[in-house]
Amino acid sequence: MAPTEKELEAFRGEVKAWFEENRPPEPDFLLPQSFMEVGTDEQFYFLRDWQNKVYEAGYLGMAWPEAYGGRGMDQAWQNVVTREMVRQQVPFMVNTIGLNWAGPLILMMGSEEQKKRYIPNILSAEEIWCQGFSEPDHGSDLGNAQLKAERDGDEFVLNGSKIWTSLGRHAKHMILLARSNPEANSKYEGLSFFLAPMDVPGIDVVPIKKMTGEYGFNQTFFTDARIPASTLIGGEGNGWKVAMATLMFERGASGGQAGGHAQMQRESSHLIDLARRSKRGGKPAIEDPLVRDQLVKFVMRERSVRLNSARSAHKALTQDRPHAISISGKYLITELTREMNEYALSLQGTNGAFYVGDPGAVDKGLWHRAYFNAFSATIGGGTSQIQQNIIGERVLGLPKS
Amino acid sequence: MSEKVTISFSEEQEQLLEVAINFARDKSPIKTVRALIEDDLGYDGDIWQEMVDLGWLGVALPEEYGGIGLSLAEVVTLAEPMGRHLMATPFYAVTLTGQALLAGGTEAQKQEWLPKLASGTLGACAFYEPSGEWNLGAPDAVATRDGDSLRLSGSKCAVVNGAGAEVLIVSLLLEGAPALVLVEKGQIPDGALRREVSIDETRRTYGLSLDGITVPASQLLDPARTHEALKHIGKVGCLLLAADMCGAAQAALDYIVEYLNTRKQFDRLIGSYQALKHPTVDVLCAIESARSHLYYAAGEFDGPQGDMAVRMAKVAAQGALSFAGDRAIQFHGGFGFTYDCDAQLYRRRAIWGQSQFGDSAYHRQRLAAMLFDAS
Ligand SMILES: Cc1cc2nc3c(=O)[nH]c(=O)nc-3n(C[C@H](O)[C@H](O)[C@H](O)COP(=O)(O)OP(=O)(O)OC[C@H]3O[C@@H](n4cnc5c(N)ncnc54)[C@H](O)[C@@H]3O)c2cc1C
Fold first, then answer.
1. Cα(A144)–Cα(A191) distance, rounded to whole angstroms?
2. Could you say which DSSP state residue B64 is in?
3. A83 in reach of chain B (CB within 8 A)
4. Does the ipTM surpass 0.90?
5. A 197-256 near B (Cβ less than 8 A)
């Protein structure tokens, strides 16, 4: 039964108090802004313990089935919690891949055994998940993935490499797209999807330095790594369909996520605050007409994203193209975030020259990092250009490029 | 951004939207639009009468004045489909006139005119002037007291559907302060109305010379409410235009998509080229955003965020239609340059919309003050 507004309001008060009381103290190292930036062990353990604490308090997976560690409640309760987490800007939930796409995927098409085995530890952050989709030679063209998975009795033998593996060093499992049948009729039919363990012999995870100068993602090498066939999901040869379903979760186009926020979203309010603190011609930049004009544009774009989802609640108002809003969300939000962070650097005037570590860096270099890291979302999960193809083809019915 | 926002959408809105979608599609196919462009009156009187009979002119007027007693949120659901089909009727002019009277008229004026407007009598608004100024509160036209009469002077322009109107609401300065005056058709001398060459050929607009017009002082709208009335008029104008432009932008997008899915060059459908596909996706996204702003503004019109929401809705719709129309021209190639190509209809409509009640930069300037300067 859906809760009433009044019940939710009361609950919100409770949640607000809990987070105020329990939010972890600011550590003496820089925290990442999303799971794609976790570079050091201290960052990782800090965030893992925090997710665990939130889960133990009952604030994660509230709408997931009780049988698998959730609470079986209406999604509305979880939404209250998630919004409050964003509002208070508490650290994000680090097991992002598990909570937001591997988990919903397993709940949707996993076996009973798989659900029991994996879901509770996703929520508690005891087992971290990573994603093995991209390869050095095949990124956007995901259907062309070539990492070999050869069946050998009850096992599959993996050979090849995956790249840009976020959280790879900390992950216990990987959602893995691999080629189980190189002779299949089409590139798509030869793929299978695995819930692969990362702790078997033959898997090597090598960190890659990001443009920010920090570490964050990895290349994962597989050399005769053997994984049980029971880790297949969706059936042998159906990997492409499973991968597509995963991407719908990843891009936020399908619901069913465990809840909790996945990143420290920079918002227009932060930018406005920065404009108040920055100077233009001896006056606060917020008084400069051009700055004001640009800020209003950002505020409006940010609002449209929220208003789009509010409009989605009314079928009559989305009848022409019912999927337009859900499918375009990722593209709109990630590009907006990138542009806002970019603009922040220009607001800083000469101080835009200083990076993390310099005493002159505005907000400790947060904006520079945020701008660079914003590309993780305009590239990862399907680039903006690929999103435009998808929107054009699926929503507008345009021919394939 | 962590607060939850909702868009309220009433059952009445939903019902009216469905009816209006079908009505506009049936009554205003593109060949009718084209034919009416050539027509002097510019709209089909029978269709107008049908709209009147459906009660659409009274939707947002109170029952005590012969209206239906709903709100402008319901009017938006009518205006959007009409915009989508470039439907030419005096709906916009009459709605605006009714709202002007409702907000600024004396009780006697409302009693007399609102029931008439609700049942199809034509009304028009004469706010704009040759100065090109958007600020409704700073007209150059003047009214001078002459006993119990007011002598008007100056000139007005862009008076939508001015020629057929039985009643006009005119803004001017009276004793140095902005005022609104009601002028009846019979009080306008022959030749005072001049049909303008409107950028949007689906509209009939007129210039109006006020020189020589004298009206009884009782035709002055309530002076105590002038300020409030002007604010309301500006807000309603923006909302109606936002709805109109959101509708038209969707039609422009459909028009682009249709061509991208049929025209071939280099043996390929041109829609397969990303140089066309990606901007078209951006047009779609602009429209989706604009519609969200629009329906939020519709529901929030009288609420605390109403003023802000309506301005944003106008800016968003303006942007979407200008962009859609502009790309529609380009993506039709040489045909796009022709009068026969419908792209120009959309682009012209956007230019007209931009000329009324403030363009996007104008509203962003005011939005900035609301967003950044409020204490
Ligand atoms: C920070 C970060 C974290 C990531 N984490 C993970 C992870 O955990 N797991 C994982 O599997 N992957 C991850 N990725 C990889 C990501 O999904 C890929 O980088 C992405 O899909 C693009 O693939 P690519 O790098 O091979 O680029 P390419 O596909 O080679 O693209 C190069 C350029 O060409 C454009 N392009 C390609 N094809 C088309 C087309 N058909 N039409 C138009 N333009 C096109 C792209 O938009 C891009 O601009 C991550 C990436 C980043 C940046």
1. 9
2. G
3. yes
4. yes
5. none
Contacts (Cβ under 8 Å, ≥6 apart) of A355: A361, A365, A368
Strands (E), B78-141: 123-126
- Min Cα separation A90/chain B (Å): 12
Task: Compute CA A148 distance to the chain's CA centroid, rounded to the nearest angstrom.
Answer: 26
| Of A388, A101, A85, residue with least CA distance to A256 | A101
Contact assignment for B371 to A272 by CB distance below 8 Å: yes
Q: Could you tell me if B315 lies within 8 Å of chain A, comparing CB atoms?
A: yes
Nearest CA in chain B to A401: B272
Q: Which helix (H) or strand (E) holds A163?
A: strand A155-166
Interchain contact, A314 vs B312, CB within 8 Å: no
pLDDT surpasses 50 at A66:
yes
How many Å apart are CA B239 and CA B233, to the nearest integer? Answer: 10
Q: How far apart are CA A61 and CA A92, in angstroms?
A: 15
| Chain A residues whose beta carbon lies within 8 Å of the beta carbon of residue B272 | 398-401
pLDDT in tens, A98-119: 999 999 999 999 999 999 999 9
Q: Which atom of ligand 1 is nearest to the CA of A142?
A: 21
Q: Are B269 and B260 in contact (CB under 8 A)?
A: yes
Mean pLDDT for the stretch of residues A226-234: 98
Q: Max Cα separation, chain B? A: 78
Residues B185 and A297: their CA atoms lie apart, in Å, by 43
Closest by CA position to A92, among listed A46, A130, A127: A46
* Residue closest to B42 by CA, chosen among B107, B87, B4, B8: B87
What is chain A's mean pLDDT, rounded?
95
Question: Could you tell me if B246 and B83 are in contact, meaning their C-beta atoms sit under 8 angstroms apart?
Answer: yes
Say whether B1 and A267 touch across the interface (CB within 8 A): yes
B288 contact residues in A (CB cutoff 8 A): 304, 308, 321, 324-325, 328
For A140, list phi and psi in degrees, rounded to 5: -60, -40
A379 lines ligand 1 (CB under 6 A): yes
Of A127, A135, A214, A250, the active-site residue reads A250
Query: Cα(A340)–Cα(A300) distance, rounded to whole angstroms?
Result: 12
Mapping DSSP to helix (H, G, I), strand (E, B) and coil, where does residue A292 land?
Answer: helix
What pLDDT was estimated at residue B2?
47
Catalytic (active site) residue A42: no
Nearest in space to B279 (alpha carbons), one of B234, B213, B330, B313: B330
Q: Is the CB of A385 under 6 A from ligand 1?
A: yes
A144 CB under 6 A from ligand 1? no
Q: What is the DSSP letter of A265?
A: -
**pLDDT tens digit at each of 375 positions of chain B:** 446 799 999 999 999 999 999 999 999 999 999 999 999 999 999 999 999 999 999 999 999 999 999 999 999 999 999 999 999 999 999 999 999 999 999 999 999 999 999 999 999 999 999 999 999 999 999 999 999 999 999 999 999 999 999 999 999 999 999 999 999 999 999 999 999 999 999 999 999 999 999 999 999 999 999 999 999 999 999 999 999 999 999 999 999 999 999 999 999 999 999 999 999 999 999 999 999 999 999 999 999 999 999 999 999 999 999 999 999 999 999 999 999 999 999 999 999 999 999 999 999 999 999 999 975
Alpha carbon distance A127, A195 (integer Å):
12
Q: What is the pLDDT of residues A352-387, one digit of tens each?
A: 999 999 999 999 999 999 999 999 999 998 999 999
Judging contacts by C-beta atoms under 8 Å, the chain A residues touching residue B299 are: none
pLDDT of residue A215: 87
Which residues face A14 on adjacent strands?
none
CA distance B26 to B57: 19
DSSP 8-state secondary structure symbol assigned to residue A286: G
